[in-house]
Design goal:
Blueprint lengths: L1 H15 L3 H16 L11 H16 L5 H24 L9 H10 L3 H10 L4 H14 L3 H10 L7 H9 L3 H7 L6 H10 L3 H9 L4 H27 L4
Helix pairs in contact: 1-2, 2-3, 3-4, 5-6, 5-7, 7-8, 7-9, 9-10, 11-12, 11-13, 12-13
Length: 243
């Protein structure tokens, strides 16, 4: 209570002396403190004050020409908090508030709620290229390889097939990755993808098609050597019963 009174007094001082931006930053600080409150989840009434604090900060920043960026950021943050609050209420899962737009989208997809993910994408104007990375990553996280393949066939990905390749390789799914690597139009990207899978001959062949073949070969040696070292270490640990 004393802390709240101190904040109020400081905010009043900033406002009375025309230091609107300082009052705005103070409001954002109060909002973050509410966000860290363990009770601020699953439709907690604390979300209302939290959003209002951010909206007040937005209005204060908007009154100063020097803080248009902060004003826009606060406005977007308040909107995101409202969306995340609604998601926590509807899913009864306190896992959204405090995360980024990207993580909010991925969490929705992981939970099987693509409709909500698409809505967040639309509301926050997430570019299609970014959407492909996020959705590929989310589907790979839950191992939904059929859905990932279906997604890859909906239309030609705006940024190519690299998101699919990376998602599969990061998940340790060589067979799945090999569905998409041949679709990479950049031979350098194909070469590096094959190298990450320890497919030496395929990596070399793709590298030979690249304009910067010599430079690429140098990077390949490093990647392949690292993979060999990891495999050797894994074999030793497996032999010792660690795996």
């Amino acid at each position: 209570c004393k802390r709240h009174s101190k904040h109020e007094a400081l905010k009043d001082f900033f406002l009375s002396t025309g230091r609107l931006q300082d009052a705005g930053f103070l409001l954002l600080k109060e909002s973050r403190e509410l966000e860290r409150n363990p009770m601020a989840s699953k439709g907690s009434p604390l979300h209302g004050p939290q959003v209002r604090l951010v909206e007040q900060a937005h209005r204060l920043f908007a009154e100063t020409k020097e803080h248009l960026f902060e004003s826009k950021s606060a406005e977007e943050h308040a909107k995101l908090l409202r969306v995340q609050h609604q998601l926590e209420v509807s899913t009864k899962q306190a896992i959204f508030v405090g995360s980024s737009v990207s993580d909010t989208i991925k969490t929705c997809i992981v939970m099987g709620n693509e409709r909500a993910a698409v809505k967040v994408k639309s509301e926050f104007k997430v570019p299609d290229k970014r959407w492909y990375w996020l959705k590929s990553c989310a589907l790979a996280t839950v191992g939904n390889w059929d859905a990932l393949e279906t997604f890859s066939r909906e239309k030609r990905p705006p940024g190519g097939y690299k998101p699919f390749v990376e998602a599969c390789i990061d998940a340790g799914q060589k067979t799945e990755a090999l569905k998409y690597i041949p679709k990479l139009t950049d031979p350098g990207e194909r070469s590096e993808a094959y190298a990450r899978l320890n497919m030496t001959e395929e990596a070399k062949k793709a590298a030979s098609e690249a304009n910067n073949g010599d430079e690429l070969f140098g990077r390949l040696k490093s990647t392949l050597a690292q993979n060999t070292l990891i495999d050797t270490l894994r074999d030793r640990l497996s032999f010792q019963g660690t795996y």
